[in-house]
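Office hours follow-up: a student asked to see two folded examples consecutively, so here they are.
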Amino acid sequence: MAIVKASSSKWINEQGFVKGKFNWQAGYGAFSYAKSQRDNVINYIINQEEHHRKKTFKAEYLKMLTDFEVEYDSRYLFEFI
């Protein structure tokens, strides 16, 4: 993950996609789905822009934590923009 984060932040900064310097937060999380859910995941990605007009990323992220039974302390969640 360190290589992916370093390479992608370097590329984002070189491309000038954000004002100022882009940095990833410390840490990361990953969620996986069974192969049987492949079509659902693909459809989600295809329709992600429309989906997020109806549900915020924060609401969806917190639901994923709950659905996957991930314990968390809201004090340590990243800053939602």
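And the second, which I mentioned at the end of office hours:
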Amino acid sequence: MERPQTKPKKLISGAEVTAIVGFGRTKINVMVKNQTFPQPIKFSKTFVRWDLDEINTWVEEQKAMRA
């Protein structure tokens, strides 16, 4: 039996997140703590990544709220 193929998730670094959204890490960390920004995936204490799809969805939600 074959497994259905799923598209692999693209995980990005904090530096890539800041480049996409235009906020610094301090602002992002505050928003993560307040749960107003996508939560990172913590692989270890120093290795953290975000799901690119979640970041893009968050950006689209922000754009939709301005209308």
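Two things to take away from it. The chain has a mean pLDDT of 93. The two ends are 47 Å apart (CA to CA).
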